[in-house]
Amino acid sequence: MREGRDAREERRRRWIDRWAHRVIFLLSLTAIVTIVLIFIFIFREALPILTDPEIQREASLRHFFHPMEGPDLASRYMWQPVALVPKYSLIPLILGTLKTTLVALGIAAPLAVAAALYTSEFAPSRIRELIKPAIELLAGIPSVVLGFFALIVLATWMHRLFGFETRLNAITAGTALALALIPIIYTVSEDALNAVPQSLREASLALGATRWQTATRVVLPAALPGVFASLVLGFGRAVGETMIVLMASGNAAITSWRFTDSVRTLAATIAAELGEVVFGSPHYHVLFFIGALLFVVTFAVNSAGVYIIHRVQRRLRGEV
Amino acid sequence: MVKFDTIRETTREPARAPDLQTTSLPVKVQVERFSFYYGAVRVLHEITLSFPRNQVTALIGPSGCGKTTLLRAINRMNDLIPDTRAEGRILLDGENIYDPQVDVVRLRRRVGMVFQRSNPFPKTIFENVAYGLRVNGLVRNRRELQERVEESLRQAALWDEVKDRLHESALALSGGQQQRLCIARALAVRPEVLLLDEPASALDPIATEKIEELIAELKRHYTIIIVTHNMQQAARVSDYTAFLWMGHLVEFNQTEKLFTVPREKLTEDYLTGRFG
Amino acid sequence: MTVAPRTESPSASLIASRWEIFWERFREQVPIGLLALASSLIVAMLGIILGNIAWNGIGQLSWEFLTTAPRAGMTEGGIFPAIFGTVALVILMTIAAVPIGVATAVYLREFVPGSNLAYAWARARAARRWRERLIGFGHVVEILFARATRAAVNNLAGVPSIVFGLFGLGFFVQFIGGSIDRLFYGGELTYGQPAILWAALTLALLTLPVVIVSTDEALRAVPRELREASLALGATRWQTIWHIVLPEALPGILTGAILAVSRGAGEVAPVLFTGAAYFLPYLPSRLNDQFMELGYHVFILSTQSPDVEKTKPLLYGTVLVLLALTFALNAVGVLIRTRVRRRLRARS
Q1: Inter-chain contact A200–B119, Cβ cutoff 8 Å?
Q2: What is the pLDDT of residues A156-166, one digit of tens each?
């Protein structure tokens, strides 16, 4: 009688164990399935651009990248999806994205890398305890709040300070975007710098190098791939960031090399136009095509960044 | 259990110095009533000790006895550990290295160090050796740099093994080669004192033998202080040996004498393997 | 062994002259000072943003502002529907994201047999009996799957939030919602439109990596001895996980969940097309209702307002509430974490 109950209990335990394993396995499929589904559902809606002749009459790769007749750069590459004759050149959007990204990286990279080097190599622990939470706090600010701040406050200040022709432009948007990049670049760089073994610092100091020499000639070069990865990841974030540029860039798709012109980025275009687009229209498919483009670019950039980080970790552990 | 009082007595006694005086060897590094604290914990208790010039002196003792702390005190590497404090003096050629006016960078240039685990920079072999020369601005041109690198690698008995791959990563070398590279790197700035912190503890017997031969060769030009937990190694390579126990200097003598006729019971117990 | 003769140089004094000390310090401290300046610039920017928002927003906060709906074309009144919508959204999101995230991390840490692919492969090929061989190849597949999952998590974390928005629209709203409508509602538009459910699920996928990474770290910190002790007492793998590993990892899991919530509460781009509404006269009460959201409200007020000056105080108030919400969540998370940690320490 007793034994029978034990055996039943044993069977029950085994059964639970097996089913727990199965359920957990099924749930853990989500990450991969999501990536695959994102791929499928974005590309499914983007595909007609390449295959459907009806759509292609209005929007195709030719329309995206080929110049039209026009006297200047701005009129040869135009993004006017709701005009009588819609124009779908992606050049102004790509250019706009690159301009804001360049400004953002130009501001964020030096500041964040310098701060990372400072906290990992020089800062007294009390100051380190101040900077790290501050950067975490900065990372916690929603991007719509940064966009709001750029639009309402920063744009006015910069307009007064530099006297821009247009209040909202690539520089303003890029500056606000930099605030979103600083935490990423800082965190990844600081990790890389901290991963440099203490023994290398000691070896350098024991040779009569100063702390500055140790930091710049031993620690930074050893962590350089990691720092580079932080910039790569920052680039990916900058390209994909939506709300900040949507609010602070002026959203005019102008093809020009000037940073003081208003810009419209790829991500902001989707956010601004998908709400009003007719389902299944060429414009709709173009927006998904832009989404696919963003997905591919960030996917590639992100994979590269993560790959570099892993390699650095392996290398510093001595597994060449 | 040994009574602390007896140790303190013997430590205070000037009995350690006579050996040096009788052989009239010049003193390179003089440690005078040196104490060291980690926070409130005192890890070195008024050590007094003279390291003779151009000799190999071994610091032995059970782990945690303070031998590495004492070694790192000699080029002030302990400064890097927060919340530490030193008392007493350590004289390098008569100058107190703990004098507030002392430039630590100059000190470390004259007192080189090789660590327990080989720690080459993730640079080429050449750049590893050249590093100290560059940061200290010790060479004027490329040719001089190359000469000094070659000289150092030869001194470290590594030149023949690496001369054809100077511009490959130092991380590709074997453990023993890496450690000799670290010695070459330390030699390149031409220090006067070389501190070795268990330089062979992570190496196989053959590599260890090479390092030991090298030490014997190097003492012609350098004052060498080596920390080791391996008593046979101390007996093989050193001329003088200091035995530390729980932060106290128990005995200091010529290696031969210390190992054959230890004056202290504690030393004898340690050498015969009763503890440690 | 040849040793080149070493040229003896007269040793320089250790003591530097006052001028030398000054010069060395100067050369050393100036660049370090520049680094410190960059760091303080970042802190200052944060201070300016937070200060500006707090200064201009604090006067707007009142009981009325927090508990009433917008009025007069959103130039007056409060933001209660937006607060309600955000909280409801985030709760739904957490219900979806945390179990999936924790399960994924548990699978990767606890169930995948080792991580050495070459070894698993060799063992599978060397197995004699076909049954062993099958199990061996199963292990190889599991290791590959685990690697793919880690890569997917990494990449998911890097996908732009607007792409999540597109995906939410294409997959949840149109595909899933549309299918539900066709199957159960005879094609009548019920779930095939933007709704709080779809927005929450989209956000859940977006915040999934945060939960996974945090839980994974927590699981890694659980000492192997604890698992072995439990298994040695005859517990099954699942019993070990449920009674030993997960309680031990709870602080990390909580932290991950709260960070995810804080992130989700501030995201706007993914909910733009999946459920957020410009203005609603009622609160969402069903899963397929639309909702107002704080972040979206900020976006609307600052870009679509007919009278910017008039809405500015409202705007500042809303931003302050949003910031307070996200920061408070963070603070609560850290608090829970320290308390759980203290308890764990006291127990051991």
Answers
A1: yes
A2: 888 888 877 77
